[in-house]
Amino acid sequence: MDKAQVASMLEEIATLLALKPEASVFELRAYENAARALVSVDGDLNQLVAEKKLKGTPGLGPTMIKRVEEAVQNGKIAFLDELRAETPAVKLEMMRIPGVGPKKINAIYDQLHVTTLAELEQVCKDDKVAKIPGFGKKTQEKILQGLAFLKQHADRFRFDVAFAEAERIRTALATLPEIVRLEVAGSLRRRRETVKDIDMVASVDDNAPEEAREKIMSFFTTQPTVISITGKGTTKSSVVVASGIAMDLRVVSDSQFPSTLHHFTGSREHHIPLRRRAQNMGMTINDYGLFKISEGKEELVPCHEERDIYAALKLDYIAPELREDTGEIDAAAQHKLPKLVEQSDMRGILHAHTTYSDGQKTLREMVEGCIERGYSYLGITDHSKAAAYAGGLSEEDVRRQWAEIDQINAELQGRFHILKGIECDILKDGALDFPDEVLAGFDFVIASIHSNFNLSPEEQTKRMLKAIANPYTSIIGHPTGRILLGRAGYTLDMEAVIDAAAEQGVCIEINAHPSRLDMDWRLVRKAREKGLKVPLGPDAHAIEGLDDVFYGVGIARKGWLSADDVPNTYTSERLIEFFRAQRERRLSQ
């Protein structure tokens, strides 16, 4: 059990307590605070528990420490299991509806006695929800919209959830000496932002006995996170893991591994034109291999790696992230695929929060976290004053933070640099939340929408275009405001936004937090074609959040970005000059 898993369990307890009308608000807050505190604890959780070092941690009282120890030692918390058993299933399902909190859920359940989401949808259509005191037609319509959103995204899981599940089992399987090669496949390997299930492919020696496959499958199906087995054989086994996601493991001979991995990585859309190309070259391709057809007979084309498959088809290697039939095959045939950005290209962080606003760590602690990860700079971007809910900075706070930044920069000169940034709210009329004389003091400004999501598409677009036109705007943050599997985000003309940003020389970020991954990778490709620079912003509110850059790199790669397209790959000197030139050019227009 890692910190994120246990914190998630504590958050779930808080949620379930909120669904109990008689629950103490103080108890609920205690679990919420404990979850936040746990994520911020430094060090390996298992070791901290074993050495009894959690005592004295702010936010973790004796009861919370017992809960954490129980989770680490047993893989579960009995109190959480009790709450799950006591809570009507429909209440948990209603928690997934955007904008519907515990109070509304309890009111609907107590007054209308619904037992399923289908029944909830019907009582909304029958106009019964609107008649509950404190609800009304507008709330009823939002619930119907939320139900439609859930239907659209049913049985999907965020990338980070699926990745964590896959990594746990992949790491365990990798210890087996019988396995020669092992890879995650499917949409997870292609770095899709949400996935339906997990595919994994393992190989054994071509001459391995059947017992080797049986051992691997028995090991796989008895992993601690497996909650049910839906199929078990020596070539394929299927399970469901604790998060509810289904996982398939295929075991093949090592000579078949490249073709099986390629086949189950997909996508179907990529494979259709690839197979057509193979047919035109007198070949056929499937999960068993690439075959040359001669006089009605199939002859296996030896391929030790996926690269060999593409080479035999006279194509440059196509990275898994690009296999979506968006022009990658033609580009590979013409040697025009970009050299995709890598995690190792990242030199610094842009978009992180501290205790000055709603971050969990101090400025110095965030700097130390960056240094530990090998970064050479940090663009700090606490919230502006309009974001009062997030402890937005007043102008006085800004100057106080600048003074601390100057002090730390002087201490770390030549080793690390903090850029003075701000995540500045875009107000309803498109103006930025600070006057020009304050904005001029920042090295860069991320302009983001955090309010008035329900404006018309025309108004929202006009609002964003005005923010882009502000010469102090360096980067547009999370441009659509979407929350994956949570809300669709506000509606605006992103084509017009990208065009305006390209014209003004403004960047649009990929918000790398796994709940956002916004800009969408399809839009990233459009932005690249327009010449935009696309920074990766982890939106880190704790030291661990710095690692979310990993998710942003996946989306950047899906959007065909090379290292030079991503300002985080620049040296601090080049980046500072980039932002300075960007601003001066626009102020002189």
Mean pLDDT level: 94
| CATH superfamily heading of the largest domain | Metal-dependent hydrolases
Helix amount, in percent? 40-55%
CATH class of the largest domain equals Alpha Beta
In CATH, the topology of the largest domain is named: TIM Barrel
> What is the quaternary state of this protein?
single chain
How are the strands ordered across the major sheet? 11-12-13-14-15-16
Instruction: Provide the low-confidence segments as ranges.
Output: none
Shape annotation: globular
Domain unit count:
4
Q: Give the count of helical stretches.
A: 24
Distance between the termini: 55 Å
How many distinct beta strands? 18
Instruction: Report Rg.
Output: 26 Å
Q: What portion of the residues fall into strands of 2 or more residues?
A: 5-15%
For the biggest sheet, the summary is: 6 strands, parallel
Helix and strand content put the structural class at: alpha/beta
Q: What is the CATH architecture annotation of the largest domain? A: Alpha-Beta Barrel
Could you name the key traits of this structure?
6-stranded parallel beta sheet; Beta Polymerase, domain 2; DNA polymerase, domain 1; about 600 residues; about 15% strand; 24 helices; 4 domains; Beta Polymerase, domain 3; alpha/beta; 5-stranded mixed beta sheet; globular
